[in-house]
Amino acid sequence: MNGDSERILENTARDYDSRLGPSLFAPWAKHTISGAHLRPGDRILDVACGTGAVALAAEPRVAPDGHVTGLDPNPGMLAVARSKSASVDWQQGSVESLPFEDNQFDAVTCQFGLMLFPDPVGALVEMQRVLKPGRHLVTTVFDDIDNLPVYRILAETYGQVADPAIAELLRAPFSMGSRHVLNGLFAAATIPDTELLTRREDAHFASVEALVLADIRGWFPFAGIDLDETVTEKVIAAAGQALKDFTAANGGLRFPVSAHLVIATKRHANGRIRQQAI
Fold this sequence. Notes:
Blueprint: H1 3-25, H2 29-36, E1 43-47, H3 53-62, E2 67-72, H4 75-84, E3 89-92, E4 105-111, H5 120-129, E5 131-142, H6 149-161, H7 164-171, H8 179-188, E6 196-205, H9 208-218, H10 229-242, E7 253-266, E8 273-276
Parallel strand pairs: 1-2, 1-4, 2-3, 4-5
Antiparallel strand pairs: 5-7, 6-7, 7-8
């Protein structure tokens, strides 16, 4: 990767962190961490750590003698994460081949990453492999987009104004919102009897423009998509009309976002897992 590519990734990660982090992702860290049942002295692995929302929330839970590892394939995300904490062990790597021994961690978390992995079943197998028996694997995924009208309308707007491929990209994070899909993935990973817990948090953006730019500046470039200003302005205008019922008098948006948490307790060293809800 050349210097220009690295700068693009890091700049996009900074936009992701500032535009999407506090508005959408950070409020979920407390749910993910709660499901991990952390104790002082624990070793936790946060997979697809991004810019560090879950890993940073875990630090005080395992202090003073615990250890937090954050793993992500994106060097830009890790650069931003490292700027926030030098005590977390930030590592670049792939979830499909975790660079850790069996039964190494007291908790493994993955917040809003599973639905974007090329091989989600392989990822689940690897995450439970490195988990200690008797401890917890927590995965958090967004609900189905049909249950999230703001993002459904926004995806439709991209399809009409910009490009159907961008609409599909926006739908991708919600692709595992179906219980049937999740149950199938966990069954394929030999993680039986899946039980899901659905939580809700409010997402908040200062304006429709802020909502649109959060994805255009903080996510789409990771997929190689760079919308020009003309198309961006058309999307903002169309989204403003389409989302007017969700927009407050001051122009801001606050809307509920639901997500599923799956909490799995590893019962045996051979990797068999039974799931429980918090």
